[in-house]
Design a protein that fits this description.
heterodimer, A: 647 residues, mainly alpha, 22 helices, 6 strands, 69% helix, globular, B: 215 residues
Chain lengths: 647, 215
């Protein structure tokens, strides 16, 4: 590569990053204004064919746009350093701002036609971005999977919204509601599954673990932290604005919790760090949909206080997930660059090799576990409260559904704590496994940009984890739209659920943990000092000597006990083969060990689709023997049918 | 004059049934020529009655293309073909008549709403156009030789044309011209295809054509 093309690439890259940043900042400013009460309406009938361009930025759209633009600002800064290390085609660079614009415009679309148009633009640009490394065959497979899933989802959305428009007088999204028509159940099912394919929910989630490792890291971050949110936006916008039926909520809880458990389980057994994060995304979106399902179910059964609690859980978890997932992907990108591999088993000692990224990844992992002080805590705690406070006077349906949901949620949290502990402990904190790679030379500008982005995101995560009341006004605007008559749950410094028993204050927990840590440190230090001296001696290890690097846990061995428990769900296959160097002598030269886990949902779904397509094509082949006169007969029968119908 | 005009649809129906029933290609082509002449006479007679120049031109055009040009082209092709028996599915003339009768009834029933809505005898006999289309399809289905297929196809087109005249007393002239010229091209291409088939397969049985090939 000569210096001229390199410098022109640099110009191109900085231009595209600046453009992305400008778009994101513009979106952020607009959405803050939208949240503060202004409603922006923009109409240009000549700009789009057929239906014209109609944009409207209400509170709900502004909330989702704010999430998108916050994440896009961080990614825009990060892409300038990432793409300077990894050269990509210029089209990819130009697609980044396009993708952000499309994501910002989806919630703003005021008519169904605009919604379809921007949704499809978003899908196409993201598909092209996934296909950045199109010369690589795994990338191509991932891209094709993604395109297939997203188009199936779009077809479902189209069917759902088209039947809505067919029955409504205007083609505007906030026109007469769907739920008055006899078709509303069908519309709900179609739109739920359609948006589920974008949000990464079962059964249409198997594109996530393929697309994220294949895409460049800034693209994964954008897709995983903000694009999936638009699936939730669709579900809220189309299905939840007006009250539905109680079984809708139950269906959403079933889909959400099965996705959450499945995602957490697969995150636990993945050793590819991006694949793990992709499954974690799927799992968190499952929790959000569970919360929305609980909201729908509780609203339909008239438990308004609990419904609002569930809604607060969904909204706060959306914010939290966006925060920790963007941080996780950006820091994981840095870790991958420094380790030279995506495999957690090959990483190790990253805490010394890239301290900032490791610390950031730690904060993000804490958020992803849903433990206190993490960004994902408050949402999950609120969901837990909504599920646990089902009164004994509730209908039997609630008293059956809620405890089961609670148990599954607890299982999910347990699994994901194990998964994130694995990714952080094995990948970052362990001893060095592979030989030391020379650290990549970075320019000062790149280092400072990365440092700023990661530090700001860490700060945002910690702030949100400690003081969720900062998001209270945001939540209040959205809740007012969805529950116009209720009193939204108050998210203050201390979250107190007034009519119910229960309160929590993350800042108090933070102070307690900090005090405890400092006290322990002082105690230990004092004890060491009082003993006078510290003797360094070998560990007592039965005379075995210093433990070697290969003796430490790796990701497979860490997950092995849980993996054995869930072996049937994971469809675990193990194969050990010994290779004899010389058949006549019984000496084993090498032993190979392989284990594979099938994505059971994806393989079942794909097999079903393949079988039905094969059967249909068999049928078609039988109808096409190649005889011309038979085709004439088909035409004649068709003509006769038309004549009889048209009479 | 009126009687002559009303005779035309009846003649069309009769020739249609006869074409479907006969198996000899020359006879079929001759009857098709008769049908084309009747189809040309119909607008001609209407033109004389209504003193319309446009209808008269349409009549002359119809007569030229459907009565003389197309059957002439077809007859040339037929004369060149080697003699071969048509391996038709329906060999029995009686069953062929029966099938035609059934199709006429279906056409009549399908057009019942239209027939009830109109008052002129001519418009009420517009179902004959559909019946001709059905006979054409019948020929397409039953005959296996390529020229038989062309005859069936021509009869379908005659049916469409007849329906146009009977129901509306003349479609716009440009439409008429366009449709007829299309037809001439289609017949030319089919005639060439038939000749190629004779060279390739030494026969014109279309059941030999069972798959699309690429070269």
């Amino acid at each position: 590569m000569n210096s001229q093309t390199l410098s022109s690439y640099r110009w191109w890259l900085s231009g595209c990053s600046a453009l992305t940043l400008a778009v994101a900042l513009g979106g952020g400013v607009l959405s803050v204004a939208g949240l503060s009460g202004h409603i922006f309406v923009f109409t240009a009938a000549w700009l789009l064919p057929i239906a014209g361009l109609h944009l409207r930025l209400g509170p709900l759209s502004a909330f989702f746009d704010l999430l998108t633009s916050m994440i896009a600002i961080a990614v825009a800064a990060y892409m300038s350093t990432y793409f300077s290390r990894h050269r990509v085609p210029r089209l990819t660079l130009l697609l980044m701002p396009t993708f952000v614009i499309a994501m910002l415009l989806v919630p703003m679309a005021a008519t169904y036609f605009d919604f379809w148009f921007f949704w499809e633009s978003m899908a196409l640009t993201s598909a092209l971005l996934v296909l950045t490394h199109y010369r690589d065959s795994t990338s191509r497979t991932a891209g094709l999977f993604y395109i297939a899933y997203t188009q199936v989802g779009f077809a479902l959305i189209l069917a759902a919204t088209a039947s809505l428009t067919a029955h409504s007088t205007s083609s505007f999204l906030d026109g007469p509601s769907a739920h008055l028509l006899p078709l509303s159940n069908l519309v709900f099912i179609l739109s739920l599954f359609g948006f589920a394919s974008k949000a990464g929910l079962l059964p249409l989630n198997s594109w996530l673990p393929l697309a994220h490792p294949a895409a460049p890291t800034p693209v994964s971050a954008l897709m995983s932290a903000s694009m999936v949110n638009l699936g939730i936006y669709g579900i809220v916008r189309i299905d939840l604005i007006t009250p539905g039926q109680s079984w809708w909520g139950i269906l959403m809880i079933i889909i959400g919790l099965s996705t959450a458990t499945y995602g957490a389980l697969h995150a636990l057994v993945s050793s590819d760090i991006k694949r793990l994060l992709a499954f974690s995304t799927s799992e968190n979106l499952g929790i959000i949909v569970t919360a929305l399902g609980a909201y729908e179910l509780l609203r339909a059964t008239h438990f308004v206080v609990l419904a609002e609690l569930a809604l607060a859980a969904a909204i706060l978890h959306l914010i939290g997930h966006g925060l920790f997932k963007s941080l996780a992907f950006i820091t994981a990108g840095r870790l991958i660059d420094d380790a030279g591999t995506r495999d957690i088993d090959q990483m190790g000692d990253m805490i010394h090799r890239s301290p900032l990224a490791s610390a950031g990844f730690g904060v993000a992992s804490l958020g992803a576990t849903g433990l206190p002080l993490g960004a994902g805590f408050i949402g999950e705690w609120l969901l837990l409260q909504a599920l646990i406070h089902t009164p004994p006077t509730a209908p039997i349906l609630l008293r059956v559904v809620m405890p089961i949901a609670l148990a599954l949620l607890a299982l999910t949290v347990g699994l994901k704590v194990a998964a994130m502990t694995k990714s952080f402990g094995i990948g970052v904190l362990s001893r060095q496994r592979s030989p030391h790679r020379p650290t990549i030379e970075r320019k000062l500008v790149a280092v400072s940009i990365d440092t700023t982005v990661i530090s700001l995101l860490v700060l945002a995560n910690l702030l949100f984890g400690a003081l969720p009341n900062l998001a209270d006004p945001l939540y209040r605007r959205v809740a007012k739209l969805l529950v116009p008559h209720g009193i939204p749950t108050h998210i203050g410094l201390s979250v107190i659920l007034t009519p119910l028993k229960g309160n929590i204050s993350p800042i108090v927990i933070l102070i307690e943990v900090a005090c405890f840590t400092i006290a322990t440190a002082i105690l230990v230090e004092g004890r060491i000092r009082s003993n006078g001296r510290v003797i360094n001696a070998d560990l007592w290890n039965c005379g075995g000597g210093e433990p070697r690097v290969r003796m430490q846990y790796n990701s497979t061995s860490f997950a092995q006990p849980l993996e054995t428990i869930f072996a049937s769900t994971l469809r675990l296959q193990e194969r050990t083969a010994a290779d004899h160097s010389d058949p006549s002598r019984l000496i084993v030269a090498t032993v190979s060990y392989e284990r594979s886990r099938a994505d059971i949902v994806a393989s079942t779904l794909h097999r079903l689709v393949a079988q039905s397509v094969a059967q249909a094509s068999q049928l078609m082949r039988r109808a096409h023997p190649g005889n011309m006169r038979l085709y004439v007969l088909y035409g004649a029968i068709g003509l006769l049918i038309i004549l009889l119908v048209a009479r | 004059m009126n009687v002559l005009i009303q005779l035309c649809p009846a003649l069309l129906l009769l020739t249609g049934i006869l074409i479907a029933a006969f198996r000899d290609l020359r006879v079929q082509t001759s009857i098709l020529r008769l049908q084309g002449i009747v189809l040309g006479l119909l607008p001609g007679l209407l033109a004389i009655e209504a003193h319309s120049v446009a209808l008269a031109i349409a009549g002359v055009l119809e007569l030229g293309i459907r009565g003389i040009l197309l059957p002439g082209l077809l007859m040339r092709t037929v004369k060149r073909l080697p003699a071969e028996a048509d391996p038709a599915q329906v060999r029995n003339t009686a069953s062929s008549f029966l099938l035609s009768g059934l199709l006429s009834v279906i056409a009549y029933l399908a057009f019942l709403p239209l027939t009830r809505a109109t008052h002129t005898t001519l418009a009420q006999s517009s179902f004959i156009g559909l019946a001709l289309i059905f006979f054409g399809i019948q020929v397409l289905l039953v005959r296996r030789r390529a020229v038989g297929q062309i005859i069936g196809f021509l009869m379908i087109d005659n049916g469409i044309d007849a329906f146009g005249f009977l129901a509306t007393l003349g479609v716009p002239f440009v439409l008429e011209l366009g449709g007829s010229l299309d037809l001439v091209f289609v017949i030319l291409i089919l005639a060439i295809l038939t000749n190629r088939m004779v060279i390739k397969f030494e026969g014109t049985d279309i059941d030999d054509l069972s798959a699309l090939g690429e070269r």
